[in-house]
Amino acid sequence: MLSQKTKSAFSKIVGSERFHDDLATLSSHSYDSYSTGGRADAVVFPKSTVEISKLLEIANQEAVPVTTRGAGTNLSGGSVPINGGLVLCLTQMNRILKIAPKDRYAVAQPGVVNEELQIALGKNGFFFPPDPSSYTVSTIGGNIAENAGGPRCLKYGVTSDYVLGLEAVLASGKIVRLGSANVKDVTGYRPAGIFCGSEGTLGIITEATLKIIPIPKAKRTAMLVYQNLNDTAQTVADIIGEGILPAAMELMDNGIINLIEDYMNIGLPRTAEGVLLIDLDGMPEMVQKEMELVERIGWQNKAIQISLAKNSQECDELWKGRRAVYGLLNKVSPTVLVEDATVPVSKVPDMIRGCRKIAEEFRLKISIVGHAGDGNLHPSINTDARDKEKMQRVDLAVRKIFSLALDLGGCLSGEHGIGLGKKAFLPMALGDDTIDFLKMLKRSVDPLNILNPGKFV
Fold first, then answer.
1. CA angle 269, 270, 276 (to 5 degrees)
2. What are the CA-CA distances from residue 305 to residues 220, 248, 369 (Å)?
3. What is the reported pLDDT for 456?
4. CA separation for the pair 159, 170 (Å, rounded)
């Protein structure tokens, strides 16, 4: 519990209108899309780096736990204040500070919503490639803290590939500037990269300098439907083997296909084992030739249906079902766990079949959607958190899913992070010396462990 003296000190920094310790605000800022554990003692909405510096200076002196939060769309429990303390909500630091098309970078505060940045960049003919499914609400600070990906990361990479520099506040309250607006900058270490995926454990991101790229001249979309998962996976391998690198290549299994048909009735064959959604972009002539080759590869690999979008409206129609998946999953049961693991592309069918066996073993409903081109799959479990016996089966199934991914040469997470959800599984993936190294980095910048304590480090 925070003392009244400490609360007063925090309130004085941000003003009473941006300091809250009422039950409603504390409750609404003590959970994310994964977990509801813990409750903050106070929530503040800073508007400047200086305010955050002063808040952390006091927090460090008083050993107050500090959890940074944006939109709260985390899928791993990363923004849950399980040790109480102070929640720093950065949604009011939401200004785009600069867009420099000629130099191909933009500067944004952490509370800028990904979609709002995309709209602003689009007016200048540019875009920011990372596009997590939550891009309409998730913030740039959260995207960096979780090293978010999304469908486009197959071709364009994840958030860390677009962070040129950062301004951040350390646990002590010191303000550091890391990197620069230059694409080529090897002035010593590149610590800005360490903050990507750090989940708020190393410092508070207050400003980001981001690489941006021109919007492609053309874009085409195809939907390929298969009766066999091996044929689906072979199509992925053949497309990439031909030197084609799609902007996105998404896979949906039979469970997801039927879920979409149950609620949207868009005409997908319910007996199909796999659907691929493929986006190609680039120069018009090249996109046209590549799409013809994709279509040919699809038929060669026994696709039973191929739909090609002729314009942006038809493209949106093909993507409608995929974009609606997580909302539809929430209609099926009171609780949905959207897990996240990555395997080599060639092992995608093995991972899907393995998840089906796990679902049968533990009597659970597990559906899979994912980024087929990079092997990042999202086994989604429909359950009920109020049913303790069922949740015990869910816990065992989740452990087995991650064990399977690791056995296939994969990893624990491709984009959702570790947070609370995968903390217990970290020793399965990393050796003791590696974990000790992560802890050493943490101690070097946060010796009192006030920043997002209780998480993966």
1. 60
2. 17, 19, 19
3. 85
4. 21
* Local structure of 49: helix, strand or coil: helix
Positions in the chain whose pLDDT score sits under 70:
none
Measure the CA–CA gap between 108 and 156, rounded to whole angstroms: 20
Beta bridge partners of 282: 218
The amino acid that residue 121 corresponds to is L
Domains identified in the chain and CATH numbers:
4-89 (3.30.43.10), 96-214 (3.30.465.10), 218-407 (3.40.462.40)
Q: How many contiguous H segments (helices) and E segments (strands) does the chain have?
A: 15, 19
Cα 147 to Cα 293: distance, rounded to the nearest angstrom: 33
Strand, coil or helix: 302: coil
Nearest partner of 394 among 348, 361, 353, judged by Cα: 361
Residue 140, both tokens: 């740039």
Question: Residues of 123-138 as b/e, b for ≥16 C-beta within 10 angstroms?
Answer: eeebbbbbbbbbbeeb
Calpha distance 111→126 (Å, rounded): 20
Residues 416 and 76: beta-carbon distance below 8 Å = yes
For the full predicted model, state whether its pTM sits above 0.85: yes
Q: Which of 198, 77, 223, 75 is nearest to 141 (CA)?
A: 198
Q: How far is Cα 14 from Cα 46, in angstroms, rounded to an integer?
A: 6
| Cα 382 from chain centre | 20
Query: Do the bridges between strand 218-226 and strand 305-308 make them parallel or antiparallel, or are there none, so unpaired?
Result: antiparallel
